[in-house]
Amino acid sequence: MGLDGTGRKKTPCCCCADVDLKRNDGFSGFGWPGPKRSLRKKAGLKSYDENLMDDLIDKHLGGSMKKKNRTTQDIEKETETEAMIALSVGFPIDALLEEEIQAGVVSELDGKEQNDYIVVRNHILARWRDNVHSWLSKGQIKETVSSEYAHLISSAYDFLLYNGYINFGVSPSCMSQIPEEATEGSVIIVGAGLAGLAAARQLLSFGFKVVVLEGRNRPGGRVYTQKMGQKGNYAAVDLGGSVITGIHANPLGVLARQLSIPLHKVRDRCPLYKPDGEVIDKEIDSMIEIIFNKLLDKVTQLRQIMGGFANDISLGSVLETLRQLYAVVRSTEERQLFDWHLANLEYANAGCLTNLSAAYWDQDDPYEMGGDHCFLAGGNWRLIKALCEGVPIFYGKTVHTIKYGNDGVEVIAGDQVFQADMVLCTVPLGVLKKRAIRFEPELPVRKLAAIDRLGFGYHTVSGGPVLVALVAGEAAQAFEYTDPSTFLHRVLNILRGIYTPKGINVPNPIQTICTRWGSDPLSYGSYSHVRVRSSGSDYDILAESVAGRLFFAGEATNRQYPASMHGAFLSGLREASCILGATRSHQSNSRKLMQKNIGPNNDVLIDLFKRPDLAFGKFSFIFNPLTVDPKAMGIMRISVGNSSSENSSEKEIENSSQNSPDLPLQLYTMLSREQAHQAQLIAGEDESRLSFLLKDLGLKLMGPSSMGSIGNSLAATIASARRGRGRYRVSSKYDFSSMH
After folding, report:
1. For residues 737 and 418, what is the distance between their CA atoms, to the nearest angstrom?
2. Lower Cβ count inside 10 Å, N or C end of the chain?
3. What are phi and psi of 237, to 5 degrees?
């Protein structure tokens, strides 16, 4: 996690060298860290109303959207507001995501069609964010967008739906979309944390048969809410992930809105005390805070100068070198206060500064979600409980072996074997580091290397209904093996040093809990960080699927939002989309083997190419609209002939023979979306693109009859998908009745 320059880390507060204390009205847990830069503010409002987003959207969209006689100014204002909402969700205002480009959402890039698509896309996003309680249909969008953009409505809607940007969550309307019978295939999900539960619900809505295997006797993984107290006076305490870091566009905020759970803003006021209980002088506090932030700025400047040489250097060593170079933080009091900032930084990254990469420790800075940091009234268990509804979960199933191959997957837990088409592994990075699960065949070398390079904290929290103590860095590692009573007495001594002189009695606690995530065999730590010699690319490598059968999700697979609850949730939605695409690819391949060796009917091709998905120069392309996989195959047509014949209309081609000398010769080949977009980017005339396709990619041009059963199957698949364009079903290969 990186710095936003606007706020001191909002979780730890009072501290000594290795123990940070905070009073925050029922909040606790390791928090899935937020911003790390220090700049304390005056306390703001205690409660944050996420429904204010509803009011904002309704003000700009909800009322005027229904008016038929809108002025140009009204429309421009709505378009601007919708663009800002899309931006908050992670979409660029005037460009496409790379995933959208790969999915071929428009036939031509950087033109009017793309601009129109972006407006439609932003409108759909804003419409759903306006009412996350209801399922948004294409029909509803068509009520507010002109029919001339019907193809863009379908393109944008399908992309947003299948990639988890709309119609997700725990509202009854989402549950109502789950088909009674699964017909898409079967998936085993290992782990019932946020990533696994998000993926499970999404896959169920796609029509998959899903089962979740969880090693614990509860769901949630590293999100765990504990009741504490006595005699009917209880409070909910989050002992794991707790803070929603940045409420704007956060999917967990959407879940809270769907469940009508109030969100409470984490207070900004954070007075600090010396180990003996004396309050820190405000001037010294402010001075050290400024010094700390300036040293971090120097680290940024230094790594820009050093380039790749910074990869082998730790953040801790650079900070210490700079501190000595500028001769700052000299006195004991200054050093203790500076150590607080270092410990706070270690807490936010779940790792020692001596291990954090100076080059990439804040690589996810550009993606931080805006808005206040909040926690849920009653704890995050309320989200977990809602996500579990309707999801088949087997508890107490600790997976130790995952086998995958062309025929499907086998997942072994104890003496039970579960079989399915695909498996999604959502276990924490610490479990992968420990090699607690055996993969057969072994994972690719590059994935194993990424697992080893990324860091994974050992972070420990003890909490109560009002007070929480946070331990970070090397102190957290030592805490794993120390009697909790030792630290409890130390904490109480500090508290009494603070409050006794004020005439306030600090009693012994009613109940204490100490969690040890670092030694927990189902987590082996708290959350990931970029270690020395690692980079953000390792998150991407960890997210890569293997052999189209084995998939990975979890916060450590999310480069943009690692070490966060929403990052874990979003990774689950991402992998559900990937699994859907891979399933469609497997289904297409299976059908190809069953077809006779005949090419597609020429009339079918003529009909399909009346509406190409991509066209430039002499080239036209058609693809399956139900998959966004860049590797998914499509058909290309090129018109060959003299300049006059090449301008013949589709109607003339349809009504004439393919061999007519007065019409262009229509030749075809099969290629992937990715290859089509590569050809589009080739500079020069059509001859240059054709040379790239034939020489660089090794493709062959042919007539319809020469395309064989593969071409026939592909054309039939595209035609069928265009007719259905909603839910394209085939039967699954496995079911879970084969469990033994």
Report:
1. 9
2. C
3. -125, 120
Please choose, from the candidates 655, 656, 615, 623, the residue with its C-alpha nearest in 3D space to the C-alpha of residue 639. Answer: 615
Amino acid identity, position 162: Y
Strand order in the sheet with 47-48: 47-48, 263-265, 373-376, 244-245
CA distance linking residue 87 with residue 246, whole number of Å: 14
Q: Which fold has domain 186-255+378-465+521-586?
A: FAD/NAD(P)-binding domain (3.50.50)
Mean pLDDT (the chain, rounded): 80
Instruction: Sort 293 into a burial class: Cβ within 10 Å, 0-12 / 13-18 / 19+.
Output: middle
Q: Is 671 helix (H, G, I), strand (E, B) or coil?
A: strand
Do 556 and 454 contact (CB within 8 A), yes or no? Answer: yes
Asked if 28 contacts 463 with a C-beta cutoff of 8 angstroms, the reply is yes
Structure tokens at 348: 């936010």
**314: which 2 tokens?**
């730790």
- Nearest residue to 720 (alpha-carbon basis) of 708, 728, 710: 728
pLDDT in tens, 124-175: 999 999 999 999 999 999 999 999 999 999 999 999 999 999 999 999 999 8
614 CB burial (10 A radius; 0-12, 13-18, 19+): buried
Residue 609, phi then psi, degrees to nearest 5: -80, 0
| Strand spans (E) along 356-458 | 373-376, 393-395, 399-405, 408-413, 416-420, 422-425, 438-440, 455-456
- pLDDT recorded at residue 64: 39
218, amino acid identity: R
| 3-state class (DSSP) for residue 234 | strand
Q: How far apart are CA 119 and CA 128, in angstroms?
A: 15
Mean pLDDT on 707-720:
83
* CA–CA dist 713, 719 (Å, integer): 10
652 phi/psi in degrees, rounded to 5: -65, -40
Q: Is the pLDDT of residue 463 over 70?
A: no
Distance CA 468, CA 660 (A): 82
- In CATH, the architecture of 73-167 is Orthogonal Bundle (1.10)
Give ranges for CATH 3.50.50.60 in the chain: 186-255+378-465+521-586
Threshold 0.85, pTM exceeds: no
107 pLDDT band (50/70/90 cuts)? very high
Query: Is 263 in contact with 383 (CB distance < 8 Å)?
Result: no
